[in-house]
Amino acid sequence: MGCAAIIVVLFPRFFFRNNISGGIEGYVEILGFSCILLGQIIRVSARGYKAEHSRESQALIQGGPYQIVRNPMYLGIFLIGLGVVLAVFKWWAVVIFVAVFIIRYIKLIYKEEKKLLSLFPGSYRDYCKKVPRILPSLFTITKLDISEYLPIKISWFKKEIGSILTLLLLTLLVKSWEGIVKQGFGFYIRQSLWLFLTFVLFTIFVVLLSKWTNKRDENFTDKS
Known about the structure:
By secondary structure, the protein is mostly helical. 78% of the residues lie in helices and 0% in strands. The chain has 11 helices and no strands. The longest helix is centred in the last third of the chain and has 38 residues.
């Protein structure tokens, strides 16, 4: 990653997209930041759910985000990285990112699967038959309630809010660098306003998800 960062910094015009407002470029940037935020929600949900239900790695987790994919945290990381590439880099960089992601994580995923298979031989085989490895099924997503597969608690979100904001602002800074050089730092401040509004909407969505999660947990407790 360090070598990649150095290469990008040395040849910015080769990797970075021109700072063009409007048109298809604007839609791609919106898609990029949307992927970043969606990836953050999935990652926070997966990490928080695992922390509360793994019983110190003694239980096989099959609920929450783990009922739509077996590796939701890696799915979240993939969407975050893809979002950064779409928001900042040229189109062909997506191919490089996907290739690097596969090379970096496929071996790690297989290693973890082998370990889980040794810990939970019967139940993990059944789980693998029902749930895809990293890309969710559209049928499963539409069939389930969102609070079932994306549970969120405010305490989980608070732990990650600093890293989420830092990533968004750094991505915006890189994307706006050409405009900053030409028009000054005020350009970055103006660009940050729409990102701030987007983050407010994102926070509202997280709060709603947390309320749905709490309500679902309360209903489950009452039924129990």
